[in-house]
Specification:
Blueprint lengths: L2 E3 L7 E6 L8 E7 L4 E6 L1 H16 L6 E5 L9 E3 L6 E14 L18 E2 L5 E2 L20 E14 L5 E9 L2 E3 L4 E3 L2 E13 L2 E16 L10 E7 L12 E3 L35 E2 L1
Parallel strand pairs: 1-18, 2-6
Antiparallel strand pairs: 1-17, 2-7, 3-4, 3-5, 6-7, 7-10, 8-9, 10-11, 11-14, 12-13, 14-15, 15-16, 16-17
């Protein structure tokens, strides 16, 4: 399954990491977020940059979560996505917006958009009408099952703040908001909708420390129905932190609602000692490969 690149990589960020002991090369920071979490982290320069970008992206593309970053004993704020590599107490922090391809029907559009003006008729022998090759066919009397499903590309704001505690529990929030926007393909306005979720699993992998999968329980929905996110049900996300964009580096990646899920967070007992995942351990492996626009 394809991944979706985080849009506008310069203003979107991702950081994945683990709690680490302090050293002369590391920076100690405290991440305070509006979901009630206050986490002290020791990070390297790249992760600090990712955190800074993530915090700013949460401001630029609101999804119901805001954070501040305080350097100990100095202070700074940030915005982007940040991952923690496989190890003790992994975390992921991110913010920004991305583009998802969604069915117009899943967005609540019950009728197809008006057809374009009919193509000029071409009369052939016997007075019959031949359709111009390549012209679009639309029959308003056709049954819904015979009509082609229509898809559109929409912007989705995301805010991620997930941490594993010493006791193995997970704290934080994973939110998404679809802001109000026009869809040419659906023939109307996509209304705002939002979900808030609480993490129940976060896994990073020793062989791929820049990748993570998260399972989160939807605890709140508002606005019109959010495709792929239902109150009381679990949702699944995949993330890949490709470092701070620029210098030839690809943008950070993610996959999650409203796109079809492409990963399930495995129970810790199913992860082999080397941290790698085999297909039998997941319904689907985290397919974090090629981006698409």
């Amino acid at each position: 399954m394809r991944r979706i690149a985080l849009a506008l990589a310069m203003t979107v960020g991702l950081a994945i990491g683990t709690m680490a002991p302090a050293s002369a090369l590391d920076t100690s920071v405290t991440l305070n977020c509006s979901d009630g979490t206050s986490i002290k982290l020791v990070v390297d320069a790249d992760t600090l940059t990712g955190l800074t970008q993530a915090v700013q992206a949460m401001i630029n593309y609101p999804a119901g979560l805001s954070c501040t970053l305080i350097q100990n004993p100095l202070g700074v704020t940030f915005g982007q996505i940040a991952f923690a590599g496989a190890g003790t107490n992994p975390f992921i922090v991110g913010g920004g917006r991305w583009q998802a391809t969604v069915s117009c029907a899943d967005l609540g559009f019950t009728e197809p958009p008006p057809p374009p003006p009919p193509a000029p008729a071409v009369f052939v022998g016997g007075g019959s009408v031949a359709r111009v090759p390549g012209s679009w066919s639309y029959d308003p009397t056709a049954s819904p099952s015979s009509q082609t499903e229509i898809f559109t590309t929409i912007w989705v704001n995301i805010a991620v703040n997930v941490h594993q505690q010493d006791n193995g529990n997970y704290v934080g929030t994973l939110n998404e908001t679809i802001p109000t926007q026009h869809s040419e393909e659906c023939g109307g306005t996509v209304t705002e909708r939002h979900f808030t979720s609480k993490p129940i699993c976060l896994q990073t992998f020793a062989g791929s420390p820049n990748r993570a999968v998260v399972t989160s329980d939807v605890t709140q929905v508002s606005g019109d129905p959010f495709p792929g996110a239902v109150f009381g049900q679990d949702i699944n996300f995949s993330f890949e932190d490709n470092g701070n964009p620029g210098g030839g580096r690809p943008p950070d990646m993610l996959q999650g609602p409203p796109e079809a899920e492409n990963s399930l967070c495995p129970a810790p007992a199913l992860i082999p000692p080397d941290g790698t995942l085999k297909r039998e351990h997941l319904d689907k492996e985290p397919e974090l490969a090629t981006s698409s626009s």
